[in-house]
Amino acid sequence: xxxxxxxxxxxxxxxxxxxxxxxKNTFENQNDYSKNDKFxxxxxxxxxxxxxxxxxxxxxxxxxxxxxxxxxxxxxxxxGENNWWTNGVHQDEKDxxxxxxRFVSWNSEDKLRVFKMNILTEKLTELE
Length: 128
Fold this sequence. Notes:
Helix content is 0%, strand content 50%. The chain is mostly beta strands. It has a single domain (2-126), classed as 7 Propeller (Methylamine Dehydrogenase, Chain H). The strands form three sheets. Strands 1-2-3-4 form a four-stranded antiparallel beta sheet, with no helix packed on it. Strands 5-6-7-8 form a four-stranded antiparallel beta sheet, with no helix packed on it. The protein has a four-stranded antiparallel beta sheet with strand order 9-10-11-12, with no helix packed on it. Strand 6 (56-61) and strand 7 (63-68) form a beta hairpin. It starts with a strand and ends with a strand.
């Protein structure tokens, strides 16, 4: 079991490439898989990092998985032809906490950079 992110309400973890969401107030044992935990994403290459916001669970690794907590839907970015290994997903005080986050990856010149993404518009900006 690989723990990815945690807040007051949820714990996110992976078993190999499957990512699960555990509601902490429903289970006594927070450190074990339960059949009641919600599968939220298949993330190739074993996810390595994530954050939980009020609206989303954002997971990095091979691409970015974004799970919408309200709608229960998941979307994956940066795989297929545009495959990126990502890590260090986080939010900055300058980000719109409802829709923006940052992550570290390599740009087209193979330089490690920080990128900012808007979940709603899917706009990606490489930061200086």
